[in-house]
Amino acid sequence: MADRRILDLPAVVLRERLASGAMRAIELTEAVIARVDCLGTASTGFTWFDPGFARRQAASLDQFRGRGRALGALHGLVVAVDDTIDTAWIPTGRGFAPFDGHVPEKESAIVEQLRSAGAMVAGKTRVAELGVGGFRGDGQNGGGSAATRDGAAAAVANGVVPLAVGLDGGSSLVAAAASAGVTGYRPSFGAISRRGTLDLVPSLTAPCVFAPDVAGVALIAEALFGFDAADPATTLAPHPRLLEHAGSPPPVTPTLAFVRTPWWDCASAEMQEAFDELIAALGERCFEAPLPQIFADARILAERVMLAEMAKNLTGIRQRHAAALSQALSERLSEGDAVLARDYLAALDWRKVLYAGIETIFERCDAIVTPAAIGPARDGQATQDATAFNALWTFLGVPSVTLPLLETPDGLPMGVQLVGRRGEDARLLRTAQWLQTLFQQEMQG
């Protein structure tokens, strides 16, 4: 009989038990299978899950440990990856009917890193059509509930897996994590290789990881960081010890900068009231930093880059499978066709200007604090502003993390987003852990 209570333990505790031999990989796997059986595959966020395949992986990992071999940082941990990430032996449908049943010949860099760290891939989680989540809502590719659109966040939120990975090209995954009530972390652009993924927007796309807590996202992200010659966005440099930094106390009390952004009016009344209370509670540890009006164009610029690169990189699919594309996506690709080269290149140039403006804020704080979404996710709601508080950070390539610290009076989660300097991911996660601990202490007090 599987003990499903195992899945209530934090990922770092599970890792310690698996590494010490106090728990076997098959025990954790059986708990996952039992949870999927209880909830039903459709409710768990999975689009593909095979209990037999999971058991075979777990048995292999237990045999490996039994031989006394060196163990990876994620040995025995069950991880879900979204359906835009290539997995050998497992179908990768990419949310697109013509690709149903397609099994890639090679693993993606993400899955290679997971397997080399000793993790087992439990299955594939659902994504929107061709993984497209936009800067605007349209009901099919950018609107609706972020929690229901993204299966990776849902798999963690439902307690099916302790860790998950998704590919974020349209700035929607941090909002999805916030709506699902889990911790979502989008590292600095180029920190994790995208080789073997459906990378439709190479100037913006970055993998995003999910876990119930900060330590969990630090654990899995550290295993994925690294250089890959096949991805020009990565760099040949040492990567930070994310888990160690996240678990260490800050040398001085962090200072946060509250940035409303030009889209503050898009936030729901519940979100605005909750943030007013949060900022008041932080007191002298937080100051408000207004952004110049020029930042209001960031979403337009980001969308221009996204649509132009999508139109280019989906040319082959449009030629072969035009009839299978939804009307909404076809219209967006037509918009991308209309973007002039000079406008696309100018949009990319604007990133330097806007980042310079953000740098002046980072000189005075450890992290920026801002909403992770416009408000709680409610069934049936669709909005053109779903990713209003995410597009700027995606466009600038800075790391961001959402913490499930707030909720509505009726219990719906709302995320608090922290944003850091490029390359200062370890500092950002340490600050996030500090804020989470501070919040928990004040709630208990």
Kindly summarize this structure in a few lines:
The chain is α/β, with parallel strands linked by helices and 445 residues long. The relative contact order is 0.13.
How do the helices and strands line up, and which of them pair or pack?
Layout: H1 11-20, H2 25-39, H3 41-44, E1 46-49, H4 51-66, E2 78-82, H5 109-116, E3 120-125, H6 146-149, H7 151-157, E4 163-168, H8 173-180, E5 183-186, E6 206-211, H9 214-224, H10 242-246, E7 256-258, H11 269-282, E8 286-288, H12 298-313, H13 315-321, H14 327-337, H15 341-362, E9 367-371, H16 391-396, E10 400-407, E11 413-419, H17 425-444
Parallel strand pairs: 2-3, 2-4, 7-8, 7-9
Antiparallel strand pairs: 1-3, 4-6, 5-6, 5-10, 9-11, 10-11
Helix pairs in contact: 2-4, 12-14, 12-15
* Class derived from helix and strand content: alpha/beta
The order of strands across the largest sheet is: 1-3-2-4-6-5-10-11-9-7-8
Q: How many alpha or pi helices?
A: 17
Q: Give the termini distance in whole angstroms.
A: 39 Å
- The parts where pLDDT drops under 50 for at least 5 residues are 134-149
Order of helices and strands: HHHEHEHEHHEHEEHHEHEHHHHEHEEH
In this structure, how is the largest beta sheet organized?
Answer: 11 strands, mixed
Q: Helical content, roughly?
A: 40-55%
Strand content: 5-15%
What's the overall average pLDDT, rounded? 90
Radius of gyration: 21 Å
How many β-strand runs? 11
